[in-house]
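Class prep. Sample record?

___
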Amino acid sequence: MAILSLTRLRLHSWRAYPGFIVWVLGSILQSLRCDGLLGLMLLRDRHNAFWTLTLWRDQKAMQTFRNQGSHGQAMRRLTQWCDESAAAHWSLDEAELQQAREPDWAALQQSLMRDGHFAPLPLASLHQREHWIPAPALGRGRLIRLR
């Protein structure tokens, strides 16, 4: 079964951006080389939160990407960069996989609040502590589809 992985991160300070962006670019390049990647979308919303939606052939492909390379190293730095961090993944049948290629971001936000793992963060915002995620404030040019 295919897997949809959804993450949302918000940086606690503008000072975190340079290092964060370097690791994001490395993670994007890593994902595009991964066997099993079916789709990749990046969204920066008006709340300065960064969302990723990735579609994978199976759980093994998703976990291999998540735990290795630039992405694995970046995950270990989240506590330094973020005041909000949530992630979840779901199994998809073929029809759901096709729907996921045109995501309903408001529905995904609700699913992430319901099913997501909220990382323990030393600089956690009130939203993070309460497991609340604002709906993504979409704007022109903020969604990037890479696959």
Observations:
- DSSP finds seven helices and six strands in the chain.
- The domain at 2-145 is CATH 3.30.70.100 (Alpha-Beta Plaits).
- Residues 20 and 77 are 9 Å apart (CA to CA).
